[in-house]
Amino acid sequence: MAEFRPICEKDRKEIEKQVVMRWGGRSMAIHGELIDVTNLPGFLAFENTQLVGMLTYRESSEGIEIISLDSFIEHHGIGSALLKAIVRATEEQNLGRLYLTTTNDNLHALHFYQKRGFTLSGLRIGAVIEARKLKPSIPLIGNDGIPIEHELELTYDFNRT
């Protein structure tokens, strides 16, 4: 069973290693800006002493924005548990809206988040095409051979029963 805790400063080197390996660099291009994922707050998941997942977020005027969610072992509930941690923290601290952005090719993420209470709340046509100006390493073709072109925003529905 995984154990979860907030990110602390001693975790930053391992977070950087994982982010660079999984995302191709320290930064993600979202909403027309580069965000350094390695310096964000978040939650980590460990099994024994091995890092098995992480979630990063940032606070904005709109609420809490999930920037990254990575489960290093699929289908063990790690991603779901990390998501529950940020949902709980957002609700308990009355931080407002909880939302995230994914790309049009990421059908796995769309399935995962909608199954866990998120609903589609925005579509930014051509946003990824523009993001490549900031981060040229973003691939042209993504999952299942789908061209990566658009950002989709999903928002957690706190009223869902």
From TrEMBL:
A single GO molecular function term of this UniProt record: acyltransferase activity, transferring groups other than amino-acyl groups
PROSITE patterns, sorted: GNAT (PS51186)
Keyword entries, A-Z: Transferase
Pfam families recorded: Acetyltransf_1
Source domain of life: Bacteria
Keyword check for Transferase: yes
Domain N-acetyltransferase span(s) in chain numbering: 2-136
Stated name of the protein: GCN5 family acetyltransferase
The species this protein was found in: Sporolactobacillus laevolacticus DSM 442
